[in-house]
Each structure stands twice: as structure tokens, then as C-alpha cells.
Amino acid sequence: VAAMVQAFRAAVRAFSAAARGRVASLEVGIIGVPNVGKSTIFNALTNGKAEASNFPFCTIDPNSGVMKVADPNLATLSKYIAAKRVVPAEVRITDIAGLVRGASEGAGLGNKFLSHIRQVDAIAHVVRCFDDVNVTHVDGTVDPVRDADIIHTELILADVQTVERAMTKKGDEALKGLLAWLGDGKSARELPTALGPPAEMRAAAERLGLLSAKPFIYIANLSEDQLFSLRDGLDSVPEYASLLGTHKGKDTPVLPICAKFEHQLLSLETEAERAELLEAAGLSEPATAAISRAAFHLLGLHSFYTAGEIEIRAWPIRAGTVAQDAAARIHSDIARGFIRAQTYNVKDLVANGGLPGLRIRQEGRAYVVQPGDVFEFLFKV
What we know:
By secondary structure, this protein is α/β, with parallel strands linked by helices. Helix content is 43%, strand content 18%. The chain is built from 15 helices and twelve strands. The strands form three sheets. Strands 2-4-1-5-6-7 form a six-stranded mixed β-sheet, sandwiched between helices. A hairpin with a 3-residue loop joins strand 8 (301-307) and strand 9. Helix 1 crosses helix 13 (323-330), helix 2 (38-46) runs parallel beside helix 10 (259-267) and helix 5 (144-167) runs antiparallel to helix 6. The longest helix is centred in the first third of the chain and has 24 residues, at 2-25.
């Protein structure tokens, strides 16, 4: 019996370690029709060197990189703690080749590109709002609502095929309901949260790994003129306004960016020069900062922090993670020998005006980590 108990505990530890490690491998895929600026935005987000050219399917094999998450809490902690370095959380991001109408039937290497989408955990759909005679559009004209609908439809059609294949093996009521839902042109992501049949359909969608069930955001790629015109209100940029209007009331963020402007920012050598350009443009931060945070939350992540004289670091974890599992993100020995966590929240640090006199809480291994928590873990191995 003792041996069985030990084996069970070892299995639980292995499963927990695998689940904790999964955080580091979570990935966001950038998709869209060809020539919308996906690769340029990928380069801006990752400081990468992916080829960005004016012809369809410039990208065939996915480009992968790491995006640093712009986190205001790190700047706040740096005001009160003089650390030698500051280390932000990171998210893996992949630039996937352009999809065209008919991709679900294999058009434009569609089957290959759809398989790349299956491998990511969330989707950032780049939609072109800018018009440029030097950058061709595969459909001849700029229409962000049409382009968004093309991708929406192709993902759903691919999911219909997946569900139909599953029904040949096991045609249960959940699959039948899911097929009818998709047949109405609605994504699996839009399934109701109610119990009963909707819950069974959601479970089936997750089990099958449906593309339209993945967390989703839109990135609207604007021209520089459109970006600056936004200061005058949405009506001044009808292409962006139409995309927002189509998705109003839906739980799908639409974030603006000017890939050309972000490229100019990256080309500057110093932070002072970048800050000057942002101020001249009337912007408080690069658009990539907001997108990095949106992508981070899209994956269901938030950060806890460690902070001292050597470094301030953000550690990404899933929402709902307990203190002992958070400790394992730093080192497995800390989790194994966990005694307690000494913690405070960034908001409490600000309210107190610094560390002197700040109340430090003592939390146990089952404490659910909150966004903004700063930890010192006490352990003995």
C-alpha cells in the first residue's frame, strides 16, 4: 500500500510539473489574408527579421519568436526597488501564412496553413484597414469586414469537417448540436455558457480542438494618417469603425496598430528617441505594448513577481494558480520544500508609498495567487 501511495504522489507531482511547464509553451498565432502586414507586425512584436514583401504567400513556413509583455507593474516596482535588471514575462508568437477564400478546401495551401493554426493556443487576426497602391490586396480592394468574414468562415468550415469526421465514429447529441451551431455560421467560441447541452457542446469543441473555439483578438492595421486621425474620433477612420461596429457586443477585442509606425519606432536607437516620436504622435505607448498585454490575457495568464536588489522579474502563471505551484515556476525545489510565502501586492506598495511600514502577508501553499502579487518563498529541502 505504501508503495502505491508513493507512486500515486509521484504521478501527481509529474502531472503538476507538466501542467506548470505548459505555461511556457503557450503560443499565439498571427493569421489573416495575404498582404495585410502580418509579418511586419510579427517583427514589431518580437523585434524579429521575418521577410515582409508585397506578394501573396511571402510567408509559407511559420516564423516563431518571443514577445516581451509590456507590464506597468514592473515600472511601478522599479520606482521603489533599485534592481540591477528587470525581466518581463514572455509569450511565444507565430506568424502563419495568409489564408484565402477556400482554404478549408485546400485553396492557397490552405490545409497546410490550417494545420499551423491548430498548433497554437490563441489567435490574433490581423485585418488590413490601410490603402496603399504599392501593396496589392488579393481581393483587389480594402474591406476589413469582408476580410474578417473570410477568415471567420474558413475556420468554421474547417471545424465542420472535423465534427463530421468525428460523427462517423460517434454521432452523439453534443456533436449533432455542435454541427448545427457551426452550420449557422457561428464560431464554437460563441457557444452559450449555460449548463446542459451547451456545456456538452463546449466540451466536445474543446476535445476536438476546433479552430473557431480558440481565444481570439483582432488587430486592425492602419496607415499613419488613419492612426493620427483616430484622435479626432472613430468617424474619421471608417474602415476601423466598420470593423469595431461589426464586433460590438462580442467578447472579441479589436486593437489598432500602424505597422509602419511601429517599424519606425524600432529603427530608432534610444528610448529617448522613441519617447520623443511617441509624444509627437500623441501616443502614450507603442501599440505593440497593448497587443502584448491582450495576447497575454488571451492565453489566460497573469504574472506574479519577485523583486530584490539583483532583479525584478515577472513570472507568468495561469489564473487560479496556488502559491506552491507558483513557486515551482521559479524552481521545483522551492515547491518541494515549500514552507510559506511572504507576499504583498503592487497596489498595496503604491498605497503605502514604498516598502517601509508595508504590511507583509504570510500565505500558505493553497493560497490562490492574485495579479500583482510579489512573493518571497520560504522553503527547506
